[in-house]
Amino acid sequence: MGKPASHILTALFRHLRSRPTIEQVGVQPYRTLLEKNTLAFKPDPSIQTEPVMINSIEAQWLFPGNKMTPRVILYVHGGGFIAGSILSHIDLAARIAAACDAKLLIFNYRLAPEHPFPEGLTDVRNVYEWLTAQYRDSHDIILAGDSAGAGLALSLLSGLLSDNYLLPSCSVLISPWIDLECKNPSHFENKEKDPMLSMDILKKTAALYTDRDLSHHLISPVNNDFSGITPVLIQTGENEILVDDSKILAQNLKTAGATVELEIWEGMFHVWHYFAKYLPEGRGAIRQIGAFVRRHTS
Questions:
Q1: Residue 270 is a catalytic residue
Q2: Choosing from 88, 147, 171, 175, which is the catalytic residue?
Q3: In the list 5, 95, 148, 171, which could disulfide-bond 143, CB 3.0-4.6 Å?
Q4: Which of 89, 139, 187, 270 is catalytic?
Q5: DSSP letter string, 123-156
Q6: Which whole number is the average pLDDT over 233-249?
Q7: Does the active-site annotation cover 56?
Q8: What percentage of residues in the chain have a pLDDT greater than 90?
């Protein structure tokens, strides 16, 4: 995908490695810091927003311009199942909506440890069912998410397949965290290269999310059979500790007969898209998401 600009990456890596971790500050202060960081990522003022409540779940519509577009994206934000919100991911979500020429719904699902598995996933399913009730006959519905949000999106797809429920037209998984056992080689091979994540932090986060068997198919959805799934785009960074998760998922999807596109971006780290305001590779990856969605929708 082309070599990244080293000076921008150097500055980003310095910033990311200086951030306090959940382990250092605790869950609530970490959430607060994440929200404060969003001040550097304000969405384009041309993006229109509209709040909505869905069965007591706070949500927000993002309209990049064309309210008559036939595409609707349900976006599941990341944050390790314990952090993240509409506010923290609004710039990223708005950029994806614009690239796809789609209206986008982002929402605040319940977070661990106050609300452990499966409560957050239950919220994701409830919002998806509400969305399909509103738009299934008139729009293409696209499912997208990043990191743990991409994991929740994949778990949702697993449940939809099991229940023979309406599937999205296509799905986009950005740097998905889909194997909470953290057992694949890239956790060790890339531990010095990914400034966003470490295996130690992920394991502690997984313990906050659930005390159940981490191989459970809705906790680590890479372990599912995806026969019958609609097209999936997976984007991951070459230097992510989670890159092997994406490779394994792509192979599993191909084995199941799915249409899957796996993009491994040279020199990139976990959810580099988040820094699209400053990082050309983030903007490029989001353009690729737009192209994929347009290919697989009306």
A1: yes
A2: 147
A3: 171
A4: 270
A5: HHHHHHHHHHHHHTTTSEEEEEEETHHHHHHHHH
A6: 98
A7: no
A8: 80
